[in-house]
Amino acid sequence: MIDSHCHLADEAFADDLNEVVDRARQRGVERTLVIVEAGQADEEARAARVEALWPEIVVSIGVHPHGAHRYEGRAAEAAAEVRRQMARTRSARAVGEVGLDYHYDFSPRAIQQAVFRAQVQCAREIGRPLVIHTREADADTIRILEEEGAGEIGGVLHCFTGDALLLKAGLDLGFHISLAGIITFPKATALRATAKLVPLDRLLVETDGPFLAPVPHRGRRNEPAYVSYVVDALAGIHGVTSADLAAATVRNFHTLFAP
After folding, report:
1. How far is the C-alpha of 148 from the C-alpha of 129, rounded, in Å?
2. Which residue stretches of the chain are H helix?
3. Of 191, 144, 139, 129, which is closest to residue 164 (Cα–Cα)?
4. What is the pTM (predicted TM-score) of this model?
5. Which of the four pLDDT bands, split at 50, 70 and 90, describes residue 259?
6. What is the CATH number of domain 2-256?
7. What is the pLDDT of residue 213?
8. Distance (Å, rounded) from C-alpha 236 to C-alpha 241?
9. Every domain of the chain and the residues it spans
10. Three-state DSSP class for 187?
11. Is 94 in a helix, a strand, or coil?
12. Between the CA atoms of 176, 66, 210 and 42, what dihedral angle is there, to the nearest 10 degrees?
């Protein structure tokens, strides 16, 4: 199994990172894609610790929409910071998570869009896939991806909670779709129906740890070992074995995030 999105460099894992990694390996997790916020020295240092402890991990670096306000009037500098940090990170494989979040609006929407657009351009220039965050901003997210030619590099709509229209738009762009622990929540009936429409060759699984722990760990800190619950849930939805679902998502991960 591969956890395709986890914030292992978050301070939530600082005190027991060794144990978290051991539990993941014991559960058969090969690696994870570690999400790192660009321009944050503490998080970059913790990511280097994760990299040393778990050499198989790969890293994605980007300015999250919540932090876009730091680059007001200088979106190009956000992209430049991503480029510099990726150049000095051995295991960097993707740009993200980047995108738009209109639910919290921690950054003004115009600034979010400018910073997002600059990072899509950066990803195209360096030939790396994108890890996309979109919340209550689907139309603008897809529009910017289309306008900036993101289909040429591909990527993933992470922690997918959208409807069939967003799913189609993402698939039409050539993107992968990643499902997280929300798929196990009792009230996620609509999401489970949409998840059934994702082709197995475009599917990824993730924890988004430390957030969104799946049932039966809901409400606790999430971690890579729990990705197995997402695998089991999606296997049931698609009518395949957990082993086959895990194998398909591992293949998809390596295709998307190739060295």
Report:
1. 13
2. 17-26, 41-53, 75-87, 109-126, 138-147, 164-172, 189-195, 227-238, 242-256
3. 191
4. 0.97
5. confident
6. 3.20.20.140
7. 98
8. 7
9. 2-256
10. coil
11. strand
12. 110
Distances (CA, A) of 1 to 112, 162, 249: 33, 24, 8
Degrees, nearest 5: CA angle 27-28-33: 105
Polymer length of the chain: 259
Mean pLDDT of the chain: 98
123-161 pLDDT per residue, tens: 999 999 999 999 999 999 999 999 999 999 999 999 999
Provide CB contacts within 8 A for 91, sequence distance 6+: 51, 57, 58, 59
Neighbours of 238 (CB within 10 A): 17
Q: pLDDT at residue 57 above 90?
A: yes
Burial of 155 (0-12, 13-18, 19+ CB in 10 A): buried
Report yes or no: 246 and 229 within 8 Å, Cβ to Cβ.
no
Question: Is the peptide bond prior to 152 cis by the omega test (within 30 degrees of 0)?
Answer: no
Say if residue 49 is exposed, middle or buried (CB neighbours under 10 Å; 0-12, 13-18, 19+): middle
User: What tokens appear for 64 in the block?
Assistant: 């999250």
- Nearest CA among 227, 234, 181, 180 for reference residue 2: 227
